[in-house]
User: What shape does this take?
Amino acid sequence: MSSLRKRVADAAEIALAAHKYVTFLDVVTGLRWLHSRHVDTWRQGRVATLAELADVREDRLLDAAAILREWAEARGLTPVAVPYLSSSRERRPLRFTDGGDQEPFRVHWMSPELTPARVRQLTERHSKAPDLVVVSPDKPWTCAVCGDTGPYLIMEGAEPSCLTCADMDHLVFLPSGDAALTRRAKKESTLSAVVVRFNRRRKVYQRIGTLVEQTALALAEEQCLADEEVRRRRRERDRERRAGEDLEFQARMTEEILRLFPRCPRERAEEIAAHAGQRGSGRVGRTAAAKALDETAITLAVVASVRHLDTDYDRLLMDGVPRLEARDLIRDAVEAKLASWR
Assistant: This one.
């Protein structure tokens, strides 16, 4: 239990540093008991409980929730109960475990640094019913109601329905890419849904667009044309601001790499930070743990660099060696390089 206490505390500290509050989901994903794709599946209402997808027994989830409460109370965090609703049509309350009280899992622990107004804002945002989620399936499927199929499905209960049976076939697809157009079309549309597709390489559901009413899309397009130049200038300013933030973050990451590996050449540390911390890359440097300069996350970024640049790993993959076997073959070389840098 003492080991679990430390691991829960570490995961909670990272989440708190990243966004000033901690949830049970932050902890279990931080512990690697659940992947974000499992949380997506659960939120879509495709399983009865989150525990069904976890790599541990339900009693371990209960232990983690209890430890999180103790840790949060000791830190003086404020508990706020938040409802968890499915993104399916019936918006049913989501269950974390099969039995018992679900409230310990629903508590969001807010930092005392947050103003009352910000706590209220976060609570309202988290309490809001989630967007309906429609899946663009990557394999054959059949509607549970009519027995037909189609390009999209939505979960109703534990069964998939086509958009015709779900009374959503009048909506049109708006691809991702124009944030202003999407935001305005959703605002004008009485009924809308986010469209996701499973990315097998990254093993997560990714948003590919939105379903909205045709009239809402036409109105949103008119609005976007009216202020296109203003939004272009704002995007340019935002791009410059984000570039400055990225450089600052990568500089801090470089210094942390050099603290952990003082014999690593500075140029190499800068290369690792720039590569791992690239915005939108999905690499380890963009995780919440890395942004909080967590030692494990930073070390993983260094290991990845050594693996690709200082060993035969890439050549082994090209020769058809399975990934896990290739990692075993180059493990000693990686450890030797890390030891020389330490």
